[in-house]
Design a protein that fits this description.
The chain is an alpha/beta fold. It is 35% helix and 29% strand.
Length: 222
């Protein structure tokens, strides 16, 4: 369960302050599929960074599984990210010199998994997204849709409870968008909490709940 209480975020640009989030409050229960939408500048990327423990709020409280984490050290936040959250990004964020297998394996190496356990996790993740036969391909040898499937496999290989997807279909055509959204829906049916950040209303409609932001505030939640 994720809970934001009166979250605000202020950025300082020289002598000017930008209010990116303004007293945002909501709760996302385990197993939900939630889309966060809004126009450019609405605050959705800022909110995603806070939910993913990539950034901290200027004020307010943030809880994961009932524990307040907004005051934790960067090291503790890094550990929470590693254990609890899997990330999928618009630009895939794959290392170009590593194969699909190696890209998925890399975070598991940092977490200290044994070679046997890494192999089990990576092959299972590749199989779950239909990319096992492409395990030895470099990103440059894959299509956009295939790269995003590898990115999803990397996100789930660590077995996080939450998947944070930031515009995961932004660089994909309609066919690959449908494939990626089907994968995310399948992960949600398997019990993963999915938080999808998107400006595309058609993509957002695949979620069970839509939180719409406008000028840093929640415009609607339903």
């Amino acid at each position: 369960m994720l809970e934001a209480k009166n979250i605000s975020k202020i950025y300082s640009l020289g002598n000017k302050e930008i209010l990116a989030l303004d007293n945002v409050s909501f709760r996302i229960n385990d197993g939900e599929f939630v889309a966060i939408t809004g126009q450019s500048g609405s605050g959705k990327s800022t909110l995603m960074n806070i939910l993913g423990c990539l950034d901290s709020a200027s004020s307010g409280e943030y809880y994961i599984d009932g524990k307040r984490i907004d005051r934790l050290s960067s090291g503790r936040l890094c550990k929470i990210r590693s254990l609890k959250i899997g990330f999928v990004f618009q630009n895939f964020s794959l290392v170009p010199t590593l194969t699909a297998y190696e890209n998925i394996e890399l975070p598991l190496v940092y977490r200290g998994f044994s070679l046997k356990k890494r192999s089990e996790r990576v092959n299972e993740a590749l199989k779950s997204v239909g990319m096992l036969e492409r395990r030895d391909h470099l990103p440059s040898q894959l299509s956009g849709g295939q790269m995003q499937r590898v990115a999803i496999a990397r996100a789930v290989a660590g077995q996080p409870s939450v998947i944070l997807a930031d515009e995961p279909t932004g660089n994909l055509d309609r066919k690959n968008t449908e494939e990626v959204m089907s994968l995310l829906s399948s992960l949600n049916k398997d019990g993963k909490t999915i938080i999808l950040v998107t400006h595309d209303s058609r993509v957002a409609s695949r979620a069970e709940r839509i939180i719409k932001l406008s000028d840093g505030k929640i415009d609607s939640d339903g």
